[in-house]
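Project outcomes to date are best conveyed with an example. Our students and postdoctoral researchers have been running inverse folding experiments weekly, and each run begins with a structure described purely in tokens. The record below, which covers 1472 residues, was selected by the lab manager from last quarter's runs and is presented without edits.
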């Protein structure tokens, strides 16, 4: 149980005191009324004796009585009604609340620190904070008990208000005071009248109440004298007469009212009555019915409904919970009239409020001397009147008992039967508990024993009392008088406990028997409750908390909610005060107590119990229990008008991951909205409150700057740019950043400015948000907020918009404006409002909210503001009729919505750069919600017209691009940058304005064509062009392309269409090609220098042609040239498998472009001039190439036409794509050479470099084709071109990169051939790269190209071996120096073929004359050497047996060329 102010002994002694009746005349009552007090109230504070009292027991032993207290009450002739008693007890508990501001009592139990006070009820967010932070340290022991003054007040009032019964005499009156005023005409006669009245009340049969202890009641005569108004002499004379009539022991003169009522109130006299007035017992009720100080049950009778809580609100709450045990009870909740923050009032504070309201204090006419006189009066009455009377009565009863002891038990029983008639002990429950069916008459000996025991008990003679109770108990049990026996057992147990020195242990079984008898047999819960209160207090004092708790719980029942609540609460305190505290039992029984308090109408106590229990349940994972407790706390707080606490409790239910069913969650939400609405109505002009629902994932908030993308219109396709619908791709974002840096570097002459900030149109948790983003005035700022509904019921947000703060600034003038808060600058920022936003149960939904800045400055987006409501179903939910719902769009909500806000607070990335940041947890800023609104900028929109989605590899397609300036500013410096510049072109500087030929227009060709002569053999047509004309001059980056605008400016509202040629990538598959359009404003701005527009084109390419080419030196050394001619073999294969409906390919032209070489003619011409390839067909073309005159930086273009129409390869778009592919090819080979060679290049010999140069060739082949496609029964002609870059003589080159898709690009048959040639397994060799420099010896291929040799001889020679045995044949050896340096050559003719196979095939011969020559050939020189070959017989001979060695003239090392081994030189010798 909770700690009590009194000790157990004091509590029991004060519970059973001698009762004295008071009977006053009207005049005497008038005198006391001057002090706003009745007579019994006047003497009440002085009824405890301050000194010890002595009396003698029946054995004449001196008995000391300590701290004796008496009770003086008005005579009330009717017994108190049970309803009145219940009302009194209910009010006593209601007004007794924990005091605010006291030291917090704490119970430390295991891991719990439990705050057992009512501080939690008044805290703003009480039950969720860390209790250890709010509790005050106490310096006493580890365990603390909490005081419960409401329980003590209840217990005291309960014991005082118990009606008197006939089976015990403890609350029977022992004496009666007759009070008469000295101012009456005949005081003595008045005493006689009062004495007769008392006698009539006691002995007349018409008055069954009150009960009197003995027939001869002590009468004590009190003469009340008013000092300020009465005559003192007359009072003294009357008192003398009284002493003569009644004796000095039986009367007293009490002088009061020494101070007049008209005196000033400057003297502060103590008011000892205040603490007693609200404890008025039920006996005083009748006397004061007409006065202003009626007992407390009449207080606040006009405040049945809490202030401000009208009937509509009551109905609104109760309708939802008609069957809930905690339904609001108007009539019983009298305590709810107190204000929610000022409801805690101590016992005395109630009287203070009364006194303040009435304006008249108590005891106003009394001085301190009068106080002493009253105290002296009570002492005299007790010493001289009451105690001698009690002592005399005890002796008389004792004598009767002694005289009875001589009789035998059987004779005594017979006498008893004779006195009481022929009665038989009854066991009827009704008779036992009804006073009208008494088993014993008043003069029965058993009752005399009980009467003596009660008298001894009242005067603290516990040993004698126990002896008498024990004797009476036996007699009652023998007679089966269970009501009497239970009373004797109860008092015997208490007497045994109170005996000084504790000669015997406390007989708890006596109490258990008494309680069981009262409750089960007698059905008297009042007496059972008294037993439990006494026994539990005794057990608690002996630290038997478990037994006390069991006893308290046993008496809880349905007949009294208030009693059950109090006892359950005390049982909970017993569990927490045990040696090993049972914290969960404490919490569980506090919940039960709170429930019963609520049923009893004690809302504040119910709230307190639930709050204390929540300390145990919170944070333990018992979500359903927490929900129930929080819901009840919210309901009770709302009833008590503690609206902030109610909101906090309901909020806690909603923000936890609730496991409640959907219907219950809907109920919780409606309750929360209803309470919240009441809170906001109290302060409609206050700041918007924070709403708990729906959840906002702050880190998922995205911010988009700019207008939404326009949808495609017919053939027009808008640039994809960027939108909130696109997923964030880190790799793609990095690519866009690189493209922007590339174009900015080009614009700024190769340097990226230090203040460069990459353009970010969409900010999210992955983007770099460390800098303030830039937005443009008059362009919307879209914020995407991720809402999540954790509940199983839908949420409806209405009037949803952003909350912002704006600070206007003029960036051009560097002038800062005043800060404008929300609401005062609506003309500066326009906000979009979403009328309705429905989030279904457990759904995550994105809301996109827009702001429209109309002025430059700094914008801060703070959060979102909205009305939170619920959807009302079509069926009736919890008693609410859906017909009252309002139609809002397509949703019907129940009209219950509250306005609130939620802040967007985004945590930046964790810093992890410095050592300090790594060792601590620090976060950087995230500024995505703080954009800077800059000056007006141009805004470009790009549309693609007839842009294809699918192409053949190498296909050329013409499309158009439309550029539109949709802003109010002109734009300039329009550029586009892409990682794939070979994919598109806008045409060269000269090609844009070149009119197309008629035939090109007729065939819708993308090329510029010219009709050619249809002769059978057509030499190559020549032209030339420079890469500068196509934007690829030296030093510029080919990825950045300038877009030609008229006057380089696009005016506001203007648009322009430009042609764009597209070239299908050489690899099949899906290609994503990024375009970044860059443009600037004509006016330079400090914040934003440029803008960009993104577009991602997705092209799906299908296989077309596979082109391979090789170049080799021609053996023919013709006179007109210097031997600089080569053969070019072009291998074309149709690898298209009828994809995209391709029927066949026609090779229409093969062009070359180079600075040094050109195609001269086709070696193998076709009869029908057209070169057709159907699916999987393959063909080989051979061309002769000759060296052209050096034309500086210009490229020479040579076109070999197979049809009757020449495509001008030096014009757009053919030359554009050639130069772009050449540029990307050079970049790729350069990167590869960097990877494979690195610094080893520097270690090459100049000689080796010259030798290598001989084998290099700079020749590029362009194969132009047409494809005939059947689509929808129509034949279309597609055009395209493939590029092959020839670098080295004899090395095969391809039109596609070799590392990717080898098998895919080659046919299956080719792939099988390759697999057969290459080994299946290769042994991997691991070595250390100690020497990374490459060997300086040239490769055989390079050496074979240094000196070109050619033998000139007759193919057959006729000789008559009969005439001459030796056959001499003249042979000319031509030597050509292919290098650009002087070369020393050694020709050795002595070489013999050693292989036997060669001897078998070819015969042996010999060279005559000089067999070794040493020559020096100048640069590009051709030398003829005349030789003679000697044959001895006929046959076929190979003249290519010579060996040629060469070295550079200024070098020492000699290299052997192996040109002669490449092909045999056969001669046939015939005999004639």
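After processing, the design step wrote out the following sequence:
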């Amino acid at each position: 149980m909770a700690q009590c102010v009194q000790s157990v002994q004091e509590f029991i002694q004060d519970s059973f005191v001698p009762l004295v009746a008071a009977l006053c005349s009207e005049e005497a009552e008038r005198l006391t009324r001057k002090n706003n007090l009745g007579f019994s109230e006047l003497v009440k504070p002085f009824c405890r004796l301050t000194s010890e009292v002595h009396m003698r027991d029946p054995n004449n032993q001196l008995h000391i009585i300590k701290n004796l207290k008496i009770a003086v009450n008005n005579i009330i002739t009717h017994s108190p009604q049970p309803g009145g008693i219940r009302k009194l007890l209910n009010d006593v508990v209601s007004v007794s609340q924990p005091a605010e501001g006291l030291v917090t009592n704490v119970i430390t139990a295991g891991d719990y620190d439990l705050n057992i006070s009512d501080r939690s009820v008044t805290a703003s967010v009480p039950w969720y904070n860390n209790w250890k932070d709010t509790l005050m340290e106490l310096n006493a022991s580890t365990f603390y008990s909490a005081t419960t003054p409401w329980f003590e007040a209840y217990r005291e009032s309960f014991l005082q208000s118990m009606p008197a019964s006939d089976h015990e005499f403890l609350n029977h009156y022992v004496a009666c005071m007759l009070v008469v005023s000295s101012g009456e005409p005949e005081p003595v006669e008045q005493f006689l009248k009062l004495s007769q009245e008392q006698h009539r009340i006691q002995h007349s049969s018409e008055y069954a109440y009150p009960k009197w202890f003995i027939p001869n009641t002590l009468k004590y005569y009190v003469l009340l004298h008013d000092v300020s108004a009465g005559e003192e002499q007359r009072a003294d004379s009357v008192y003398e007469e009284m002493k003569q009539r009644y004796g000095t022991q039986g009367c007293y003169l009490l002088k009061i009212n020494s101070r007049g009522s008209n005196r000033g109130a400057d003297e502060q006299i103590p008011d000892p009555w205040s603490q007693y007035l609200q404890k008025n017992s039920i006996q005083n009720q009748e006397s004061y019915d007409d006065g202003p100080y009626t007992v407390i049950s009449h207080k606040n009778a006009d405040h049945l409904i809490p202030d401000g809580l009208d009937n509509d609100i009551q109905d609104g709450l109760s309708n939802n919970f008609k069957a809930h045990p905690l339904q609001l009870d108007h009539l019983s909740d009298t305590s709810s009239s107190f204000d929610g923050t000022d409801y805690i009032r101590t016992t005395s504070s109630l009287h203070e409020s009364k006194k303040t309201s009435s304006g008249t204090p108590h005891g106003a006419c009394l001085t301190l001397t009068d106080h002493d006189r009253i105290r002296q009066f009570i002492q005299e009455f007790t010493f001289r009147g009451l105690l001698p009377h009690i002592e005399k009565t005890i002796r008389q009863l004792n004598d009767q008992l002694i005289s009875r002891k001589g009789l035998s038990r059987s004779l005594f029983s017979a006498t008893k039967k004779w006195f009481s008639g022929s009665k038989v002990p009854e066991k009827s429950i009704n008779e036992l508990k009804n006073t009208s069916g008494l088993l014993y008459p008043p003069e029965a000996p058993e009752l005399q024993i009980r009467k003596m025991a009660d008298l001894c008990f009242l005067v603290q003679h516990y040993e004698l009392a126990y002896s008498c109770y024990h004797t009476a108990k036996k007699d009652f049990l023998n007679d089966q008088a269970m009501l009497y026996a239970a009373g004797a057992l109860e008092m015997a147990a208490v007497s045994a406990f109170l005996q000084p020195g504790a000669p015997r242990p406390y007989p708890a079984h006596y109490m258990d028997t008494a309680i069981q008898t009262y409750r089960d047999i007698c059905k008297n819960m009042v007496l059972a409750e008294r037993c439990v209160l006494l026994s539990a207090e005794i057990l608690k004092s002996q630290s038997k908390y478990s037994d006390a708790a069991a006893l308290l719980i046993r008496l809880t029942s349905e007949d009294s909610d208030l009693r059950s609540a109090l006892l359950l609460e005390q049982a909970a305190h017993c569990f927490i005060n045990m040696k090993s505290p049972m914290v969960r039992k404490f919490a569980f029984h506090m919940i039960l107590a709170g429930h019963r308090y609520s049923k009893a109408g004690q809302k504040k106590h119910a709230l307190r119990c639930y709050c204390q229990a929540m300390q145990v349940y919170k944070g333990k994972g018992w979500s359903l229990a927490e929900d129930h407790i929080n819901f009840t706390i919210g309901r009770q707080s709302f009833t008590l008008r503690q609206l902030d606490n109610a909101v906090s409790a309901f909020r806690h239910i909603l923000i936890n991951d609730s496991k409640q069913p959907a219907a219950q969650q809907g109920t919780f939400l409606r309750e929360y909205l209803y309470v919240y609405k009441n809170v906001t109505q109290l302060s409609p002009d206050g700041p918007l409150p924070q709403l708990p629902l729906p959840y906002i994932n702050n880190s998922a908030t995205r911010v988009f700057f700019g207008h939404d993308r326009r949808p495609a219109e017919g053939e027009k396709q808008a640039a994809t740019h960027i939108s909130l619908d696109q997923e964030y791709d880190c790799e793609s974002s990095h690519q866009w950043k690189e493209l922007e840096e590339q174009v900015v570097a080009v614009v700024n002459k190769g340097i990226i400015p230090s203040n460069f900030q990459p353009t970010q149109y969409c900010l999210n948790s992955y983007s770099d948000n460390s800098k303030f983003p830039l937005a443009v005035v008059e362009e919307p700022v879209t914020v995407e907020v991720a809402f999540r509904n954790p509940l199983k019921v839908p949420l409806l947000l209405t009037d949803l918009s952003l909350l912002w703060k704006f600070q206007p600034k003029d960036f051009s003038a560097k002038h800062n404006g005043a800060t404008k808060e929300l609401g005062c600058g609506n003309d500066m920022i326009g906000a979009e409002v979403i009328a309705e936003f429905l989030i279904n149960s457990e759904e995550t939904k994105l809301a996109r909210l827009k702001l429209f800045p109309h002025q430059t400055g700094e914008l801060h987006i703070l959060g979102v503001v909205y009305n939170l409501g619920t959807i009302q179903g079509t069926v009736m939910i919890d008693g609410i009729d859906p017909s009252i719902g309002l139609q809002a769009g397509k949703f019907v909500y129940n009209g219950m919505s509250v306005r609130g806000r939620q802040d967007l607070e985004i945590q930046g990335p964790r810093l992890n750069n410095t050592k300090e940041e790594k060792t601590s947890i620090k976060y950087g800023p995230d500024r995505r919600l703080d954009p800077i609104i800059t000056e007006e900028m141009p805004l470009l929109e790009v549309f693609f017209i007839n842009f294809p989605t699918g192409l053949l590899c190498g296909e050329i397609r013409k499309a158009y691009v439309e550029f539109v300036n949709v802003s109010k500013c002109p734009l300039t410096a329009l550029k586009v940058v892409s990682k794939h510049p070979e994919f598109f072109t806008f045409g060269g500087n000269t090609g844009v304005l070149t009119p197309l030929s008629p035939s090109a227009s007729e065939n819708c060709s993308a090329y510029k064509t010219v009709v050619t002569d249809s002769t059978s053999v057509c030499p190559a047509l020549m032209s030339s062009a420079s890469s500068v004309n196509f934007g690829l001059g030296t030093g510029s980056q080919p990825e950045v392309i300038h877009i030609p605008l008229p006057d380089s400016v696009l005016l506001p509202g203007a648009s322009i269409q430009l042609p764009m040629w597209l070239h299908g990538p050489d690899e099949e598959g899906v290609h994503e090609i990024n375009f970044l359009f860059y443009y600037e404003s004509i006016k330079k701005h400090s914040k934003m220098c440029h803008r960009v527009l993104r577009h991602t084109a997705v092209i799906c390419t299908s296989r077309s042609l596979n082109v391979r080419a090789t170049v080799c030196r021609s053996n023919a050394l013709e006179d007109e040239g210097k031997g600089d001619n080569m053969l070019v073999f072009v291998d074309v294969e149709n690898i298209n498998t009828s994809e995209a409906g391709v029927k066949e390919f026609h090779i229409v032209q093969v062009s070359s472009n180079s600075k040094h070489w050109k195609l001269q003619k086709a070696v193998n011409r076709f009869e029908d001039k057209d070169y057709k390839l159907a699916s999987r067909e393959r063909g080989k073309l051979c061309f002769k190439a000759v060296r052209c005159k050096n034309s500086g930086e210009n490229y020479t273009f040579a076109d070999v036409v197979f049809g009757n129409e020449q495509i001008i390869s030096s014009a757009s778009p053919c030359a554009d794509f050639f130069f772009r592919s050449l540029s990307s090819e050079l970049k790729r080979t350069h990167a590869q050479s960097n990877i494979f060679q690195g610094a080893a290049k520097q270690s090459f010999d100049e000689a080796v470099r010259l030798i290598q140069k001989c084998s290099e060739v700079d020749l590029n082949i362009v194969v132009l084709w047409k494809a005939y496609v059947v689509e929808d029964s129509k034949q279309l002609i597609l055009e395209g071109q493939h590029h092959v870059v020839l670098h080295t003589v004899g090395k095969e080159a391809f039109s596609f990169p070799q590392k990717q898709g080898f098998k895919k690009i080659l046919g299956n048959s080719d792939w099988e051939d390759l697999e057969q040639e290459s080994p299946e397994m290769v042994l991997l060799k691991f070595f250390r790269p100690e020497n990374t420099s490459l060997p300086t010896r040239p490769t055989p291929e390079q050496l074979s190209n240094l000196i070109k040799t050619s033998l000139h001889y007759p193919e057959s020679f006729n000789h008559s071996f009969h005439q001459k045995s030796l056959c001499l044949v003249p042979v000319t050896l031509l030597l050509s120096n292919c290098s650009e340096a002087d070369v020393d050559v050694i020709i050795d003719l002595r070489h013999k073929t050693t292989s036997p196979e060669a001897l078998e095939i070819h015969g042996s011969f010999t060279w005559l004359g000089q067999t070794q020559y040493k020559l020096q050939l100048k640069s590009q020189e051709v030398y003829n050497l005349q030789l003679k070959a000697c044959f001895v017989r006929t046959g076929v001979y190979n003249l290519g047996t010579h060996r040629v060695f060469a070295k550079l003239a200024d070098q020492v090392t000699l290299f052997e060329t192996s040109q002669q081994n490449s092909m045999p030189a056969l001669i046939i010798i015939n005999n004639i």
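The chain is about 30% helix and 25% strand. The first helix runs from residue 8 to 15. The training component of this project remains on track.
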